[in-house]
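Following the same procedure, backbone shapes were mapped to integers, yielding the entry below.
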Amino acid sequence: SMDSTLHYIHNDSDLSTNSSFSPEEERKSKVQDVVPQALLDQYLSMTDPSRAQTVDTEIAKHCAYSLPGVALTLGRQNWHCLKDTYETLASDMQWKVRRTLAFSIHELAVILGDQLTAGDLVPVFNGFLKDLDEVRIGVLKHLHDFLKLLHVDKRREYLYQLQEFLVTDNSRNWRFRAELAEQLILLLDLYSARDIYDYLRPIAFSLCADKVSSVRWISYKLVSEMVKKLYMASPSTFVIDLMNELVEKFCRCHKWSGRQTFVFICQVKCLFVYIFL
């Protein structure tokens, strides 16, 4: 009986997408042969929201923290056992539970592979992007790690949303903007010269004018790396336009702070080498 059940689970059909399961089929969809089934059933039962209210309010958070390890143990072929539980935790009313998942979604993507990530994790990821700042910081800190696992076309869709990270629930949360600048430096390797110029350049210039010096210093490094990336790309019109904009916006700025910004940007990576080529 167990063999026939496992054969039913491991065939090519995607049971997790069928919403018309009977209770018996639902039970079979969570059968696997990696760990004792009773142990997995106990873990899955702990994510029941009603249990969290009556037994332990922190239990859902602990389950969320352990989920990548459980997924790694079971393997991607048994993701159907955890998919419903993951979606339940991702929509949990406690932001600490969602925050825990947000910080580990990039690790789960590595475990599941590109196809399951695109189908099951991307919708959750998109939800986290619109969540509270306490949750958004989780996906922001590992934005590069997650986006690099996506297909190029899917990855480009997030270019339109990067600017939303400039807006936070608390404007004094400068660490959020500093982390954005750090991630943009890494994202330069994932996008074309045109995408960098059209989408990442305006964000970088905005960060260079931030009120907090720590954010500005990271942004200077971002702009210098952007110049280097565009200089190495073809055609060279993007780097020329970027250099002209830097000169007009900062070097010839009527405020001393703007001119100082230009000097700092040049100082980071000896940008004068690119200016006078």
Summary: The domain at 33-150 is CATH 1.25.10.10 (Leucine-rich Repeat Variant). The two ends are 74 Å apart (CA to CA).
